[in-house]
Design goal:
single chain
């Protein structure tokens, strides 16, 4: 059974401050689901299919790259934007191989986040 994509945004990051920033940037205009780890995100992705997911790389348990790999294996069609503070270019290369929409380095730019969101959801 094929699931319809929702106009929902998932934000997956273990840093509560980052989650609060996304809520402040997008919460008034969009339905934003905040998740603290990759395993929880993948569990929820079995039930819901957001059009956009912002994903940190370095998290306890599953890394963002591991989550991204599973998302692509499941062929969910969700656009993924990596948001990370990690400086290694090797992570960016891996993320691009898995077809991320964008790869952003923290600190995040509000206008860039809002622009990406508008482009994908409208």
């Amino acid at each position: 059974m094929e699931r319809m994509q929702e106009e929902t945004i998932f934000v997956v990051d273990d840093d509560q401050g980052v989650l609060e920033s996304f809520d402040a940037m997008l919460g008034d205009d969009y339905s934003v689901v905040m998740l603290h780890d990759g395993a929880t995100a993948l569990d929820l992705l079995r039930q819901r299919s957001p059009r956009l997911l912002f994903l940190d790389i370095k998290m306890p348990g599953m890394s963002g790259i591991e989550v991204l790999k599973v998302i692509r294996e499941r062929q969910l069609g969700t656009e993924v934007v990596i948001v990370t503070a990690l400086p290694q270019d090797s992570y960016e290369e891996m993320a691009l191989e898995y077809g991320v929409y964008r790869y952003l380095r923290k600190p995040l730019d509000v206008d860039e986040i809002e622009g990406i969101t508008r482009t994908i959801l409208h």
